[in-house]
Design brief:
- The complex is a heterodimer of chains A (about 260) and B (about 170).
- Chain A is an alpha+beta fold and about 260 residues long.
- Chain A has 6 helices and 11 strands.
- Helix content of chain A is about 30%, strand content about 25%.
- In chain A, strand 3 and strand 4 form a beta hairpin.
- The two termini of chain A are about 40 Å apart.
- Chain B is elongated and about 100 Å long.
- The longest helix of chain B has 23 residues.
- In chain B, strands 1, 2, 3 and 4 form a 4-stranded antiparallel beta sheet that branches.
- The interface between A and B is large, with 122 and 85 residues.
- Strand 11 of chain A pairs antiparallel with strand 5 of chain B, so a sheet runs across the interface.
């Protein structure tokens, strides 16, 4: 069963391949995403993040979950040499870059706990995959950053998270407003596959901000593989990325 | 003889020390601690609007004013010669990772320039480019694939927010 809902300003899709799934099982997961959005969206005035940003609450008064998110943000900033930073130019905090991955991973955990073994949860192009569909490992495409509706790579995943960071409007010559006419970046898309979508997402975001050396950063991360596409349509992949792209060899029987 | 024995003992000691270092101090690799998922019980919140395009954030013009010419018509609604001359600011639109807000200049009835007043900040920090050769990495030219897939991984769309802000700026120029 496959369902899609627009939540958090993006389409969220859940597919469960297990036979016993009911629509209400999937609705519970969508409700979870809405709760996360209400609590942590910096674009909702009533969210805890907005109240922290506007000074209505102090950091020490935040919920345990938000404190954990802030601590994970700080840890991610440190692990990525400052390239991942939830502080915006005006000093506010926007943890969306972390919350999306966390929400997907926790949605997958809720499906685990409900007894499902074969599913994926996708939000805005980031995906946590579990088990298989009826035909084998889940087939995940990597979007062509230049052409909507096209894919440039297919990876077979069973229990991984995959996330892509990028800026597709770069192809239309849009420049970084903070750096006087500089292109936003030399690269347009960076996909990371890792043990879970939370880590894949935060490291994809940071690596993308590093520009060309982002793929080097992923190469050094144990357990993670990456696929980077530059503005000329050239891709660079980490050493073991192709372990996800090898298709099973189909032998035809002599007739 | 005693000197000879002590030399051998020293060498043996060194060998033991080196093996000890090899065994107990493996190469240091970047350590990624498994993330601790936060525990949030799924509380049902029925009928909550899913879209977060409502903009709870004060609109603030950013100091950065890099000129951003957009040569191709980026939105289908753009037609030449139909706008009043002037400078128009679009609404700030939630692109999830941040806000997108554009300002357009219309000259001679045509869209002359588009500037970004706001752009998601985690995309704006990427000026340092390292061109060092990366020996273990492999390259290829991308090519479209026709194989069927279950789901597609891609970046969160900022194009939609761009088009929305642009359309709102241009509607003021009508």
């Amino acid at each position: 069963m496959k369902q899609t809902r627009p939540i958090m300003g993006m389409p969220i899709t859940i597919e469960v391949a297990d036979a016993l799934v009911r629509e209400s099982d999937i609705e519970k997961i969508f409700a979870f995403f809405r709760t996360i959005d209400e609590r942590f969206s910096p674009f909702k005035a009533t969210s805890e993040v907005s109240r922290l940003n506007s000074g209505l609450i102090r950091e020490e008064d935040c919920s345990a979950d938000l404190k954990a998110i802030l601590a994970m943000s700080e840890e991610t900033r440190r692990l990525t040499d400052g390239y991942f930073d939830i502080r915006t130019h005006d000093g506010r905090r926007n943890p969306s870059g972390l919350v999306k991955g966390l929400a997907i991973q926790n949605a997958a955990r809720l499906l685990d706990e409900a007894g499902f073994r074969n599913f994926f949860v996708e939000a805005g192009g980031d995906i946590q995959v579990r088990g298989e569909n009826t035909e084998g490992p889940w087939q995940v495409g990597i979007r062509n950053p230049f052409t909507e509706g096209e894919i440039v790579k297919v990876v077979a995943l069973k229990d991984q998270g995959i996330a892509t960071s990028g800026t597709y409007i770069r192809g239309q010559h849009i420049y970084n407003p903070f750096a006087h006419g500089e292109p936003i970046t030399d690269i347009v898309s960076l996909t990371v596959i890792g043990p879970n979508v939370f880590d894949a997402d935060r490291f994809a975001t940071a690596a993308f901000a590093m520009g060309r050396k982002g793929i080097d950063f992923i190469e050094r991360l144990e357990g993670f593989e990456g696929y980077m596409i530059d503005r000329d349509g050239n891709a660079t992949m980490t050493t073991h990325f192709d372990s996800f792209t090898h298709q099973p060899c189909v032998l035809s029987m002599p007739s | 003889m005693k000197k000879y024995l002590s030399s051998i003992a020293l060498i043996l000691l060194f060998v033991v020390y080196v093996s000890y270092r090899r065994i107990f101090a493996p190469d240091v690799a970047p350590v990624v601690t498994p993330s601790q998922p936060f525990v949030t019980p799924p509380v049902a919140s029925p009928n909550v609007a899913g879209s977060s395009t409502g903009n709870g954030r004060a609109q603030k013009k950013n100091g950065g004013t890099g000129t951003s010419p957009v040569p191709a018509a980026p939105a289908p609604s753009v037609q030449t010669g139909q706008y009043r001359d002037g400078v128009y600011t679009g609404s700030s639109v939630d692109a999830y990772y941040g806000s997108v807000q554009v300002q357009v200049s219309v000259s001679g009835g045509r869209l002359a320039d588009v500037q970004f007043l706001q752009y998601p900040s985690d995309r704006a920090t990427s000026n340092r480019i390292n061109t060092r050769a990366m020996s273990q990495l492999r390259g290829e030219a991308i090519a479209n694939q026709s194989a069927p897939v279950d789901v597609v991984s891609g970046a969160t769309e900022t194009t939609g927010a761009f088009n929305q802000s642009l359309a709102s700026a241009l509607s003021q120029a009508q």
